[in-house]
Amino acid sequence: MTPITGRVWLFGDNLNTDVIHAPQFFSLDPDKVKRGLFHGLDPDIQPSMRPGDVLVGGHNFGCGSSRETSVRSLKLNQIGAIIAIDFARIFFRNATNNGIPCLTLACAKDLRRLHQHQVIEAFPAEARMTTDTGDELPLVQPGAFVRRIWEAGGLLSMLPEAKTEPPSQPVA
To answer: How many domains, in total, are found in the chain?
Structure first.
């Protein structure tokens, strides 16, 4: 898996999916969904984000509803990865299934070593990250299957193409 380089966007504990993506931005229109990222928290965050940026949070990142629109908004905004102390399970699966790496800090105290907008580089396969200040922080090694999903860009990318076989002919 290739390294992920991006600017840090720091959040606290219990970042709820309704804060990640406000319900008034639920839509089939990808532009509207994209614009809704963190809009209720601060409408200036989404326009300031760049592809590859990394969200960093504390405990229980992605708690709340299991609506996939939050993850869809992250994907549309090309978030490179999410790093947290721990994740809400349904959010972790939704993000993983959509190819967004959710990396866990090996030491919760390392969260204090990160600051807003600093550039980090995460190496998911090596379970580590480096900061622009030269710090190297260990991450929890994700399982092989989860890494395969991330490498494929999401679970659907791993499915074999549907084989088109002619329908069987009825016996006369």
So the answer is: 1
